[in-house]
Design goal:
This is Phospho-2-dehydro-3-deoxyheptonate aldolase. It comes from Cellulomonas denverensis. Phosphoenolpyruvate binds at residues 114, 270-271, 293, 324. Mn(2+) binds at residues 75, 356, 398, 428. There is one protein chain. By secondary structure, the chain is of the alpha/beta class. It folds into two domains: 7-177 and 235-449, Alpha-Beta Barrel (TIM Barrel); 184-229, no CATH class. The chain is built from 14 helices and 14 strands. It has helices at residues 7-12, 30-42, 49-63, 84-105, 150-153, 158-179, 185-197, 205-220, 242-245, 278-284, 300-310, 330-344, 371-388, 433-449, and strands at 68-73, 109-113, 127-130, 133-136, 233-238, 249-251, 258-260, 265-268, 290-294, 319-323, 349-352, 360-361, 367-368, 392-398. It has an eight-stranded parallel β-barrel, surrounded by six helices. A two-stranded antiparallel sheet has the order 3-4. Helix 11 (300-310) links the parallel strand 9 (290-294) and strand 10. It is globular. The chain binds erythose-4-phosphate (E4P), phosphoenolpyruvate and manganese (II) ion. Manganese (II) ion binds at residues 75, 356, 398, 427-428.
Amino acid sequence: MSVEPDPSVVTGLDHWRTLDAAQQPAWPDAEALERVSARLAALPPLVFAGEADALRAQLAAAGRGEAFLLQGGDCAETFAEATADNIRGKIMTILQMAVVLTYGASLPVIKMGRMAGQYAKPRSSDSETRDGVTLPAFRGDIINGFPFTEQDRTPDPQRLLEAYHTSSSTLNLIRAFTTGGFASLLRVHEWNRGFTANPAYARYEEIAAEIDRAIRFMAACGADFDALRTVDFYSSHEGLLLDYERPLTRIDSRTGLPYDCSAHFLWIGERTRQLSGAHVDYFARVQNPLGVKLGPSTTADEALGLIDRLNPSGEPGRITFITRMGAARIRDVLPGLVEKVTADGRPVTWVCDPMHGNTITATNGYKTRRFTDVMDEVTGFFDVHHGLGTVPGGLHMELTGDDVTEVLGGAEEIDDEGLARRYETLVDPRLNHQQSLELAFQVAELLRRH
Ligand SMILES: O=C[C@H](O)[C@H](O)COP(=O)(O)O
Ligand SMILES: C=C(OP(=O)(O)O)C(=O)O
Ligand SMILES: [Mn+2]
């Protein structure tokens, strides 16, 4: 039986069009956009509403300290990089980190990719100037192209369809890998043994050996490793480009309520979380679990206003606050915010993004981050929550499975010159495969100390 939606629910989904929408492209051809929207609206949803509900329940558990979220992937996915090797590398990295964190936290880890839709980027500047030529800034493959030509940089609505189809094939491979035996706990553990066998990472050997013993203990107890051959893996991206999110929003036949079926989880970015803006209005109306990024200037009133708008009834798991304060500021600014939000009583899940508050420019011009700053912010996040008796619910990372050189440091000691070796990101620097695993092992060490 299907439940018909209240007509006002459906008309409300277009209310954002009357509000200020930050960070949207200026499409040159409104009719072309309309044709694409109609096509997108007729295509199948990418995820099922029931999966988003299951994720909401798991995020609620993370908010209570009964699970831990690991969300990771590129800053900006690209169409060209949606290859089997790349997708496999990111999944492997996230699964390997998740095993280490499961052990470190003694909690189930919710696995989520910034994948299968992370194509739209907010930018500090609308334009870019090179050698006296000014063109629109690159806003992600779903909007325009990276090459610095007028044709590439002109927003093209056909890209929305390519984003949909690329997301669809990415998600298909994710589902195949995570349910077809590739993600089996024993295999992932073997990959981690391979990592710590490298002398460069010997300091993590102790935890790897402990995990090994734990797995042998499980085997001796008769654990059903066949049941551990599949994992749930959720998709997420920044809910930024409303011309994409609106046509992919569907009425759930079970409840008559709208879900944004472009991904399981959508987050509102630091630059688009204005209480009276289009993004907050739009996402308030869909049922998915939502994230909101909170930077160091966030006031308690803003955070409480976001709860009023996005989760007035205080449903557990509905809101995840992803704090990105910067290593230098987290210990000063996070406690007051967490205290005031906690006093409100409506639950939120607190997650740490240790990337976006720690971006610097290297001496040779590369946009980068220091591994030590990233780790310092994660440490500050755990310290603050432990100090307050609140729950550190997860990590939000920019990472890739490749051997890129975009973040400084780690055991490989990537330095300013080293960045040039393999700097491939089109927007923000990502931890490479090894740095991501190092981070997971260091977090496991940290959790052991706590
Ligand atoms: O991913 C985050 C933002 O899109 C990014 O940091 C903005 O970068 P910009 O300052 O280079 O525009
Ligand atoms: C744009 C991003 O982050 P923020 O909104 O926190 O700056 C991002 O996650 O890539
Ligand atoms: Mn980014």
